[in-house]
User: What shape does this take?
Amino acid sequence: MDVNVNSTSYKDLAKKIGISLALAVVFLLAQNVITPFLNVDLIEKMKGMGLLENLDLVSGGAIAKFSIVSIGVTPFIMAQIVVQILQTQVSPTFTEWAKQGNLGQLRLKKATYVISIPFALFYSWGVLQWINTLSSNKLPLFTDKHWYVYASVVAIWSGSSLLLSYVADKTSTVGIANGVSLIIALGILNKVPEMVKRH
Assistant: This one.
């Protein structure tokens, strides 16, 4: 009996580790997928810029590569903070949900996903605006000046962030580690070798 229980426990543990590793692999691969419509020649010219370097550290080097996951899970984290604040007597509805057990937690989770959508859109737009301003005296950020090109990049960054956040959040439930924390840790660790080389 104990042998069967231990066997099941090991299988469950192996499954959870496998799911967490799968998330890590997907994230690291996505970091190397360059966003279309962005001028890749600008990447080298923008290295070493102070504020951009700090933002790039948080993204694990994704912004400096113009990766499709450049904004990472930041919008989702911002949405989580907002939902936490709303539960503290700010919103009667959210406060009530927080007291409803599993059903309430499910509602709060859905609210977090919904709130993260506008955050992802505005954050993508803001980062692109900022990079575009920094690069204005070097090379154009976009390969085409049409509005739909800008909108496409915002959609790609926002969509990738929302999908990554959803998968990371699900990994927290079925994996061995907190998916969002895993993404942040991987991003920072991925940046360490480059930082060591510079110093």
